[in-house]
Design brief:
By secondary structure, this protein is of the alpha/beta class. The chain is built from 8 helices and 9 strands. The strands form 2 sheets. The protein has a 7-stranded mixed β-sheet with strand order 3-2-1-4-7-5-8, with helices on both faces. Strands 6-9 form a two-stranded parallel sheet.
Length: 234
C-alpha cells in the first residue's frame, strides 16, 4: 500500500520544515511521498523545502493562486494509491495520519474521513466563533445531504486516488475545496470509514482562514454540490 501526502503551503516558512520532518520521522520505512504545493509564497517556503533534497519530498509551484487550485494541482501530481491532505501548520495529528495509512492497508475503503466531533475526537483552542459556525453549518449539511457525518469541512481526510480522480470537475478556489471534495465523493457513493481525529490551533504563522471572506464561497459550493447530486440521481 502507498500514500501521497499533499501539503499546500503559502508563506509557511516558519512551520513547513517542522511539519515535513515530523512526517518523515513517523513514516520512515513506509511507502509514501510528500507533495508540497507552493501557493505563490512571498517568503522562503519554496527554498526551505527545496533544500531538503529528500527523494520522498517533491515541491511544485502553483499555476493559479488559491488553495483550491493548489489542491487540484497536488491531486494531479500524486503517484500513490491513496492520498491525503495535511495542512502545513500541523494542526492535525501525525498519529492520525499513521492511522489513515494503516486503514488504507485493508484496502476495503474508498475514503477514510476524520471527525473531530465524535467520541475520541479532540479540538484544542478552537476559536469560539469559528467553532459555533462550524457546528451549525455541518449539522445543516448533514441534514441536507442525508449522510451520517458531522465534520464535512474538515480538510484532513484520506481518499483512494483513482476514486478522487473520477470526480468530473472540482471548481473551488479557496478553503471551500474541503467541502466540495467530500460532498462529491459521498454523492458518488464511495465507501467510507469514519474515525475520530485530533486538531489543535496553530502556534506559529498566520491562519489563512478568514470567515467573513469565505462564507459566500462555502454557500456557493453547497448549492453547486446539491444540484450535482440532483443531476446524478434524477
Amino acid at each position: 500500500m502507498s500514500m501521497s501526502i499533499i501539503i499546500p503551503a503559502r508563506n509557511e516558512s516558519q512551520v513547513i520544515l517542522n511539519t515535513i520532518k515530523k512526517i518523515i520521522n513517523k513514516f520512515k520505512k513506509l511507502n509514501y511521498e510528500i507533495i508540497v504545493i507552493n501557493d505563490f509564497s512571498t517568503d522562503d517556503t519554496f527554498n526551505k523545502v527545496k533544500r531538503l533534497k529528500n527523494p520522498k519530498v517533491k515541491i511544485y509551484n502553483n499555476i493559479n493562486p488559491g488553495l483550491g487550485n493548489a489542491i487540484r494541482l497536488g491531486i494531479k501530481k500524486v503517484k500513490k494509491k491513496y492520498l491525503t491532505i495535511f495542512m502545513s501548520d500541523s494542526a492535525d495529528d501525525i498519529q492520525n495520519l499513521i492511522e489513515y495509512y494503516k486503514l488504507s492497508l485493508i484496502n476495503s475503503y474508498d475514503g477514510i474521513f476524520g471527525s473531530r466531533f465524535i467520541k475520541g475526537g479532540v479540538t484544542k483552542n478552537y476559536p469560539k466563533k469559528k467553532l459555533f459556525l462550524n457546528r451549525v453549518a455541518n449539522y445543516f449539511i448533514k441534514i441536507l445531504f442525508m449522510y451520517n457525518y458531522n465534520d464535512f469541512t474538515n480538510a484532513f481526510k484520506c481518499y483512494k486516488t483513482k476514486k478522487i480522480k473520477r470526480i468530473p470537475k472540482l471548481e473551488s478556489e479557496s478553503f471551500n475545496i474541503f467541502l466540495e471534495l467530500p460532498l462529491k465523493f459521498i454523492i458518488l457513493k464511495n465507501k467510507m470509514k469514519i474515525i475520530p481525529t485530533q486538531w489543535k490551533e496553530r502556534k506559529k504563522g498566520k491562519t489563512k482562514f478568514i470567515i467573513k471572506e469565505l462564507h459566500s464561497h462555502y454557500l456557493k459550493t453547497l448549492i453547486d454540490c446539491f444540484f450535482y447530486k440532483l443531476s446524478i440521481y434524477k
